[in-house]
Write a structure and sequence with these properties.
Blueprint lengths: L7 E4 L5 E2 L15 E4 L47 H7 L8 E5 L6 H14 L4 E5 L4 H10 L7 E5 L3 H11 L3 E5 L16 H18 L3 E5 L12 H5 L2 E6 L6 E9 L7 E7 L2 E4 L3 H6 L9 E8 L2 E13 L7 E4 L3 H15 L6 E7 L11 H13 L7 E3 L2 E2 L5 E2 L4 H10 L4 E5 H6 L2 H7 L2 E5 L2 H8 L4
Parallel strand pairs: 4-8, 4-9, 5-6, 5-7, 7-8, 13-17, 15-16, 17-20, 20-21
Antiparallel strand pairs: 1-2, 1-3, 9-10, 10-11, 11-12, 13-14, 14-16, 18-19
Helix pairs in contact: 4-5, 8-9, 9-13
Length: 470
Amino acid sequence: MARKERALFVCGECGHESFKWMGKCPVCGGWNTMAEVSNPAGAGSRTGVGRGAAGRRGDGHLGADPVPIPDVDEAGEQRVPTGIGEFDRVLGGGIVPGSVVLISGDPGIGKSTLLLQVSDRVARAGERVLYITGEESVRQIGLRARRLGIRTGSLLVMADTNIVAVDEQIRRIKPGLAVVDSVQTMADPELDSSPGSVAQVREVTGRLVRAAKEEGVPVFVVGHVTKSGAIAGPRVLEHMVDTVVYFEGETHHAHRLVRAVKNRFGSTDEVGIFQMRDGGLFEVENPSEVLLAERPGGEAGSAVVASVEGTRPLLVEVQALVARSSSGTPRRTTTGVDYNRAAIIVAVLDRRVGLSIGFYDIYVSVAGGVSLSEPAADLGIATAIASSFRGVPTRRATAVFGEIGLAGELRAVNRAELRIAEAARLGFTRCVIPSHNLRSLERDQRRELGIEVVGVGTLRRALEEAIREV
C-alpha cells in the first residue's frame, strides 16, 4: 500500500525541518520562518550529498573507503588560475577542482559580468566552460559577451531551468568550469514547490554539489540577496557550498569590492577591488591612489585612514559634515561605516574630548563607495568629525589609524608597519598612530619607513596632532 504524503515545514533561515508548524524556529529562533513544503515518501533522502555513491575507488572523493588520517595525501589541491588576479586573491590563489563557489550581491552590481569574464579567461587557457543561465536567453548572454569582447569558441552557453538537464550536461561535457546563474531560477520537476523555495534551492544545490564532487568540476553558483542584504533562501545553502563570495559597493559608484566570507580552501580576509567600466570589470592594481585621487585639498572634514583589507594596505578618505540641527532630534547618517560605531565615537568626542556636538546633525561617509569595518578606522572617523566641527582642516600629508576606547584612550591595532609603509609610498610625511604600536616598532624600522611617526595614547592628543588647531 502506498505511503501517505505527509506535510513538512522547513525554516527559511536555517533549513530546520519539522512535521508541525511553529511560530518560532527552535534552532535559529526566527519568527514566522516555517513554510510548508511537500514531502513525498522517500523524497527526503534525495538531497543528501553523495548518497548512493558507494563502491567508488578509495581516492579520497565522495563515497570512497575510509582511510587512516596519517595516510591522507598531503599534496595540496592543484588550483586553476582565473587570469584575473583580484579574483584569484579572493579565492585563495585560484579555482579548486570539484569546489562549489556561491557568489552573491545586489542586483546590477556586476556578478554576471565578472563571471562571464572569468569564464572567458578560463576558456582561453584551453578549458571548456559551460555557462548555464536561467534568467536570460542565450541571445542576451551573446550580446553581453560581444560588449565585453568575448568570442572564445570553447565557452558554451546554455539556457535552462531544469536542474536535471543541467546536471546531465555537466556530467556529459565535464567542463573545466561550470557557471549557474542563478540557483533561485533552477528547479527539479519532481518537486511540487516553485523555483526559489526552500525545498527547490536545497535540492538544486545538493545536485550541483554532488556533480562537482563526483566529476571534479568546479561550479560557480549565483545567489540572489534579500532586502536586508542576506543571501535569499535557506541558511543551509551557505553551509553546503565550499566558498561564499559577496559583491560589495554601490551601483552608482564605479568601484566594486569582492570579499569571501567563507572559504574552505583559503583565507576569508582577502578582498578584491574592481572598477566598473563600459568594457566590464577591471582590476584596480593601486586602489589607494584611485580612492584618494579626488580628495579635496585644504578642506575641513576630511581625514585619510590607513586601513588593511586582508593582507592589502589601503588608504581611504573619510569625510564628515557637522551642521546645526534644524529640528529637536539631531540627525545621524553614515555611509561606508557602521552606524552604531559612529554613534559611540560621537559620544566619546562629546564626553572625553569636550566637543559639544550632541545637538548637531552629523554625516559621515567613506569616499569611493568603500566600506570600513575594522576598528582601526575609528581615529579617522573622529578626526574627520572634529575637523568639520572646528572648521579646521587636518594637517597636510597626514594619515591616521587607531581604535578608540570608551575612556578616550587610543588602542593598538595590527599590522601597523604595513599601514605606515603604504602611507609613505603615497607621499604622506606624517602618520598618527597609537603609542603602543609605536613602541613595537624598532628605531631602525622607523628610519627605513621614511615617514614621521607620532605615537599618542589618547583621542584628545591624537586630534591635536592630526588637526592644525583644536
